[in-house]
Write a sequence for this structure.
């Protein structure tokens, strides 16, 4: 009997006997008629059974076997309450490992193996090559520049004079707003408020220290309290709790300039000899590829990011480590720089917006929790916030590894050959 067969026969992995009970038959009929909604199944059944019935219904409706979606090992009771509605199973993403990667950060210090969840062939191999190069060069220097999660409610003022009055009122009542915000959470701290005006629209960008949480739920709840006080105190009408000046899950210049989440920089020095022997190229070629591709090419294309493929590494680590995958777009705003030095080059990445956390969200799902433990960052840090910053530093170093590897392959004209050798279509 194969491992897959054993998992399918194990009811804890989502599959029951495969025989439809009379009760389930009645539920299928009700689901078909619309008298029972898919989201109501957990009210009548244990989570595992609700998932199986829902999946069976979708199979019948679509004429598609979803057998493999029903194979999983995670704690369903937790997931259906905190992470996923209308669950029918799981999609398995292969997880590769790159490393060891030597990181010399303020929070991350030592060698780390990076878990990368991806279906893109050659990605793990490329990052692994970069990890090896950085480690042999003495490690990646990494620092956190800024730390703050944001939410920006938008208000409607009566006219431009009123709009200015609203902004002035917010500035004058900072302490009151901070107390109100922090009354909603035992962990978060309001660290900054900046107002922006466009005509009669007033945006109030609130920034919080969210400790080890990525913090979007925390700051949204706190921002709602603050927004109510602003509306009461100024007469401005709250239009939306998020006015897109935050900016959440969209590439935005404001995040690149002011930062959002953890702002991370990572760099490594490479000697001429090292570049020649390990990367099979030279310092001038590395500099030119980065200049013409990552900088000039990105500018000409109107890109908001200036890098080779930073989002590749961010997305792969986000998925593996239970981060909000939509925030991988923030990784695309990375700036990669190559400085020529007398001894060789200094390659660096700047990630102004890296929303990561080690508690809450998907970090508690067992498979993702194992990846976080592998990095030594699972749960709350000591002091609070240390684990999330450590994770940010490790991801920043991973992005540096990915950038260095691809820049080296491009400079040496090895990219197409590498993909051909690895059989990537």
């Amino acid at each position: 009997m194969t491992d897959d067969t054993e998992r399918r026969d194990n009811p804890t992995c989502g599959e029951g006997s495969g025989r439809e009970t009379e009760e389930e038959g009645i539920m299928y009929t009700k689901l078909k008629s619309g008298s029972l909604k898919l989201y109501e199944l957990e009210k009548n059944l244990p989570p595992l059974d609700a998932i199986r019935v829902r999946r069976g219904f979708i199979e019948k409706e679509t004429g598609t076997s979803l057998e493999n979606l029903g194979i999983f090992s995670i704690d369903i009771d937790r997931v259906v309450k905190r992470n996923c509605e209308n669950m029918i199973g799981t999609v398995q993403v292969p997880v590769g490992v790159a490393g060891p990667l030597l990181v010399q950060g303020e929070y991350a210090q030592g060698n780390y193996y990076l878990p990368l969840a991806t279906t893109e062939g050659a990605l793990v191999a490329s990052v692994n090559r970069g990890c090896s190069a950085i480690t042999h060069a003495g490690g990646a220097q990494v620092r956190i520049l800024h730390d703050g999660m944001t939410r920006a409610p938008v208000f409607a003022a009566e006219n431009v004079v009123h709009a200015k009055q609203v902004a002035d009122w917010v500035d004058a009542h900072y302490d009151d707003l901070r107390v109100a915000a922090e009354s909603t959470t035992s962990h978060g701290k309001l660290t900054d408020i900046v107002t922006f005006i466009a005509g009669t629209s007033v945006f109030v960008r609130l920034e919080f220290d969210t400790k080890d949480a990525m913090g979007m739920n925390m700051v949204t709840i706190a921002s709602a309290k603050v927004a109510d006080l602003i509306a009461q105190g100024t007469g401005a009408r709250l239009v939306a709790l998020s006015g897109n000046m935050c900016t959440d899950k969209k590439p935005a210049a404001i995040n690149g300039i002011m930062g959002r989440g953890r702002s991370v920089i990572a760099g490594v020095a490479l000697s001429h000899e090292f570049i020649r022997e390990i990367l099979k190229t030279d310092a001038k070629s590395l500099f030119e590829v980065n200049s013409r591709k990552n900088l000039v090419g990105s500018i000409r294309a109107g890109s908001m990011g200036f890098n080779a493929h930073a989002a590749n590494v961010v997305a792969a680590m986000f998925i593996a480590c239970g981060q909000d995958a939509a925030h991988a777009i923030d990784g695309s705003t990375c700036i990669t720089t190559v400085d020529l030095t007398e001894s060789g080059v200094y390659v660096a990445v700047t990630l102004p917006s890296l929303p990561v956390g080690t508690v809450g969200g998907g970090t508690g799902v067992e498979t993702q929790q194992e990846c976080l433990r592998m990095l030594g960052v699972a749960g709350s840090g000591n002091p609070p916030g240390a684990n999330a910053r450590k994770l940010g530093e490790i991801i920043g170093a991973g992005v540096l590894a990915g950038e260095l590897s691809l820049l080296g392959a491009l400079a040496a004209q090895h990219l197409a050959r590498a993909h051909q050798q690895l059989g990537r279509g």
Strands lie at 95-104, 109-117, 140-151, 154-156, 189-198, 201-209, 237-240, 260-271, 335-340, 344-354.
